[in-house]
Input
Amino acid sequence: MTPTVRSCFAALLLLCAATAASAQTTIRLASPAPLGSVWHKALKQFEADVRTATGGRVVIRVIGAAQDDEATMISNMKIGRQHAASITAVGLASVDNAFNIFTIPMFFSTYEEYRGVRAKLEPMLKAKLEAKGLVLLNWGDTGWVYLFSKEPVPNVDALKKTRLYTSAGDDQFVQLYKQNGFNPRPLPFSEVQSGLMTGLLDAVPSTPLATLAFQWYRNVPHMLDVGVGPLAGATVVDARVWNTIADADRQQVLAVAKKIQDGLERDVPQQDDQARAEMLKRGLKVTVPDAATAKTFRDMADKFAVSMRGLIVPVEVYDQGLREREAFRKSRGAK
Output
């Protein structure tokens, strides 16, 4: 090999090394979060911090998906239209019904309890996602769910008469509602507002923060002061894209994701309270049931929860969640 050839070969090796070092992975991340909301701001912070932490080798592109339901976002990941999604338990349950553990009404009584149980279930839930080709980046609180309605809902009988929003695409859930005496109206998430305006819906289970952000309170100006439970959320990424990222950069992304998770856990409950206060100023009316009526809602929720076991929530997941919840309560001395 002549000196000239050796020099060219060395230059080529250096060029290849430099190209590999500067290789960039772009992750298109979809979310239904409205512009300017706490969740959208958190995702944009995630976008900026990941770029900085990885020196630009990993780039997050947050894209709007207001017209897509969460199951569609998951489907889009499978065909490469996007690579990640920040969604609620509704979308996660379309991947694996184990995530329906977070949709059981009144199963959790506090954020602390929910997060404690979630931490115990996390290894199992991560494995469920990985089996479907997805990687969990972080959890994301979206608030505490209450019932918002066009007219006051003073008791369980009144609740069962309302045309109640539920997510489209889960026929088992719809049938379960009907079997428990409810009047469910399945619609895509993007059609909630039109459903309220046209009379297809009378009531929407939602967090105060989301109800304010999407302006639904204008059509459902009554809130039942009975907490249904936390609306779990998470960001997941396609494993095929994730595995193209160098391990050191993956660790950086996970560290940033954890920071975003911690921020949402700190900020969302406070902003949920602020959203409720703001809607009260704008005319929201809150129905506070007495102790006896509150118990009837609890009894109804317990009956509904039992009917979910084995049908909506896998038996082993339901039982593990129940064990962990009771263990958490026992450790805190709670009844």
Remarks:
- The chain has a mean pLDDT of 91.
- The CA atoms of residues 59 and 114 lie 32 Å apart.
